Amino acid sequence: MAVKVTKAEKKASYDKKLCKLLDTYQQILIVGADNVGSNQLQMIRKGLRGDSIVLMGKNTMMKRSIRIHAEKTGNNAFLALIECLVGNVGLIFTKGDLKEVSDEVSKYKVGAPARVGLVAPIDVVVPPGNTGLDPSQTSFFQVLNIPTKINKGTVEIITPVEIIKKGEKVGSSESALLSKLLIKPFSYGLIVQSVYDNGSVFSPEVLELTDNDLVARFAAGLTNVVGLSMILDYPTLAAIPHMFINSYKNVLSFAIATEYSFPQAEKVKEYLKNPSKFAVAAPVAAAPSAKAKAAPAKEEKKEEPEEDEDDFAGGLFD
């Protein structure tokens, strides 16, 4: 006989499990779970098995457990999770690479039909081509203003038509037509909404940044620091090399304009007095090859006029 577990015992068990996970894992993905079925969720759990754990639950219960655990442990970093628990969400605790875990989660998406009243997450376009439907079904296409023609006893769509726009609710006509065409326009799965890492919460777009992106952003920030330091004449580690170079330019300009000199300025002064001394001789042109020499000679030989043999013979004996 199975032992009946009360609601209080279930809540206590859930609270204990959540608190243990908070103490064990420092990285958490907050994921949206709209339209995700139990079978699909089981596949995701199986795919993440090893270094990640998926935990679903009511937001009120999760918020209460997190708040009480933060008070007991004195770790207020957990409180950053509370603001993320909005809507139908779940938590993925992981010790692996956040980018790899996020990519793994995105693989488990299942196609879904366009049900009536559902808000479309994407634009839905009916492609052109033969639908396989008999001519009696043309009323569906006429209601949605889809141009068609009868070809070999079946309805054929002439041009692609957008019948549902992103953010709009699916109507009964659109749902019936897509069902008849066996089109499942939507796909659903766990969607990463926020990322928690050691007390910091940030957008999942950060996971897409590469090393080159980070270097470029760091270089842009460093340029701003240098520019501000130079304007304010405030020395910083990034601006000191530029300040030294500018100071050297000023001293060099002063040495050129006056009799004052120093070893580094002597060469510059000498160059200004006699620039030709520092000129580099142009490279000697390569000698023409034997073939190049022979070619003009051959052409000259072809250009020699040919003597008329008949004129020459006649002139000799006349």
From TrEMBL:
Keyword DNA damage among record annotations: no
The UniProt record lists the keyword Cytoplasm: no
Record key words, sorted: Ribonucleoprotein, Ribosomal protein
UniProt-listed InterPro entries: Ribosomal_protein_uL10, Ribosomal_uL10, Ribosomal_uL10-like_insert, Ribosomal_uL10-like_insert_sf, Ribosomal_uL10-like_sf, uL10_eukaryotes
Name of this chain's protein: 60S acidic ribosomal protein P0
Subunit structure: P0 forms a pentameric complex by interaction with dimers of P1 and P2.
GO terms assigned for molecular function: large ribosomal subunit rRNA binding; structural constituent of ribosome
Ranges of Low complexity composition bias in the record: 286-295
Gene3D superfamilies with a match to the protein in the record: 3.30.70.1730, 3.90.105.20
CDD domains for this protein: Ribosomal_P0_L10e
GO biological process: cytoplasmic translation; ribosome biogenesis
Native species: Solanum tuberosum
Segments for region (Disordered): 286-318
Stated family: Belongs to the universal ribosomal protein uL10 family.
Positions of the Large ribosomal subunit protein uL10-like insertion domain: 114-183
Function: Ribosomal protein P0 is the functional equivalent of E.coli protein L10.
Gene (name only): LOC102586831
One annotated Gene Ontology cellular component of this protein: cytosolic large ribosomal subunit
